[in-house]
Amino acid sequence: MAGRDLTSSDLETGEKTPSGQTVQHVTRRPIKKAAAQTWHKLSVTPNACSERNMPHATPEVLGPKPLDGGWGWMVVFGAHISIGFAYATPKAMSIFFKEIQEDLGASYSEIAWISSIMLAVMYAGGPVSSMLVSRFGSRPVVMMGGLMCGVSMVTASFGSSIIYLYLCIGIIGGWGLCFNLNASLTIISKYFLTKRPLANGLAMAGSPVFLCVLAPVNQYLLGHFGWRGSLLILGGMMLNCCVAGALMRPVAQLCNPRSCTPPKKVEQTNNTKTRGSCMKNAKTFMDMSFFKDQGFIIYLIGNVMFIFGAYAPIVFLSAYAISQGVTEYSAAYLLSIMGFVDMFVRPGTGLVANSKWIRPRIQYLFSFAMVFNGTFHLLCPLMRTYPLLVAYAVFFGVGFGMVFALIFECLMDLMGSQRFPSAVGLVTIIECFPMLLGPPAAGNVP
């Protein structure tokens, strides 16, 4: 002890300091042990390195540690359903387009705008959905989204004009899918930390699973009930998103009894606090401070470039196969092969990303997935026989599944769970532009 002053950390409970004060409730904490614990926390915290330019949040802001299991797996199941409907519905709607075109006397380009408007609203409404999730939580937002989706399909079944379908399916249904998508992604970050890549992979697997299920189901319904009856039944099916939202119960906010004080009743005599809350929500609606983060900028640029070309191969793969002499029946199977592979790759990628060797380097795995995806798209023009096209579809499913299993996990890793709702809203509204422009631009390439 020579050479420095005694502190309470050097004494046992009940001992006295040189000034005569008694030390109470103090436990020895050697310096080496404290340093080791601090290093352990830094090594297991995914955001410790990626947020080095951002101030660390206080324990009050971070909240309780995620459960990483338990009821969280039921939340993943609910997210699997809501995300599955969000991504699969705009694609599976194309099965009804021919019948709608003949019934309403619209052109194919007018009918195709139904899915385009639906996707654009789903992505552009991200900031609004994020603000509602921050204000009310994920459960009511997902339940409202499921109700809007069901109502949109039911009301669309009575439509007599293409404009009416734009309003019902495109706008109302698009908002419902937007609420389902963003709220489901946010609640997963509240329940999981160490197992979050696996949870995200299982939830995002809902897209290929529901696409593989909805496509034949819609074809069956169309053959037996027509497009109006099919939309009516599909609306009833989409009400199951309300059940999925009911599974997303809020995480219990635990507090320290020493720091928690009972709430005080305050009589508000004016609307000053209300105005302050509205201003805060307005700033959260479009948080431009994200553009000061270098990691977010790099993520956003790569994302926009990927989305611009990600969906064009899905749109044109069958047509390209037919132009190479493949029969229409065999060409249709290429997308089924791609979706089947994607179905297993997403949870598998989440499992790999959850390992202790990959988790600290998950950004590199995401970058590899993007390069892998782009490489096989460049090789696609060389695939001129059906076996080679099948091989391309398999690798396309692998690359596509890897990217979408990690795309939101990497954003969570960069921004942290507290800033993720605002970040994902900003990302989705920017992504809606390459989503709309990508396939038409690819179609104009000679």
UniProtKB/TrEMBL annotation:
<feature type="transmembrane region" description="Helical">
    <location>
        <begin position="153"/>
        <end position="177"/>
    </location>
</feature>
<dbReference type="InterPro" id="IPR036259">
    <property type="entry name" value="MFS_trans_sf"/>
</dbReference>
<feature type="compositionally biased region" description="Polar residues">
    <location>
        <begin position="1"/>
        <end position="25"/>
    </location>
</feature>
<feature type="transmembrane region" description="Helical">
    <location>
        <begin position="111"/>
        <end position="133"/>
    </location>
</feature>
<keyword id="KW-0472">Membrane</keyword>
<feature type="transmembrane region" description="Helical">
    <location>
        <begin position="364"/>
        <end position="384"/>
    </location>
</feature>
<feature type="domain" description="Major facilitator superfamily (MFS) profile">
    <location>
        <begin position="72"/>
        <end position="446"/>
    </location>
</feature>
<dbReference type="InterPro" id="IPR050327">
    <property type="entry name" value="Proton-linked_MCT"/>
</dbReference>
<feature type="region of interest" description="Disordered">
    <location>
        <begin position="1"/>
        <end position="28"/>
    </location>
</feature>
<dbReference type="InterPro" id="IPR020846">
    <property type="entry name" value="MFS_dom"/>
</dbReference>
<feature type="transmembrane region" description="Helical">
    <location>
        <begin position="198"/>
        <end position="217"/>
    </location>
</feature>
<keyword id="KW-1133">Transmembrane helix</keyword>
<feature type="transmembrane region" description="Helical">
    <location>
        <begin position="296"/>
        <end position="320"/>
    </location>
</feature>
<dbReference type="Pfam" id="PF07690">
    <property type="entry name" value="MFS_1"/>
</dbReference>
<feature type="transmembrane region" description="Helical">
    <location>
        <begin position="71"/>
        <end position="90"/>
    </location>
</feature>
<feature type="transmembrane region" description="Helical">
    <location>
        <begin position="229"/>
        <end position="248"/>
    </location>
</feature>
<keyword id="KW-0812">Transmembrane</keyword>
<feature type="transmembrane region" description="Helical">
    <location>
        <begin position="332"/>
        <end position="352"/>
    </location>
</feature>
<dbReference type="InterPro" id="IPR011701">
    <property type="entry name" value="MFS"/>
</dbReference>
<protein>
    <recommendedName>
        <fullName>Major facilitator superfamily (MFS) profile domain-containing protein</fullName>
    </recommendedName>
</protein>
<feature type="transmembrane region" description="Helical">
    <location>
        <begin position="390"/>
        <end position="411"/>
    </location>
</feature>
<feature type="transmembrane region" description="Helical">
    <location>
        <begin position="423"/>
        <end position="442"/>
    </location>
</feature>
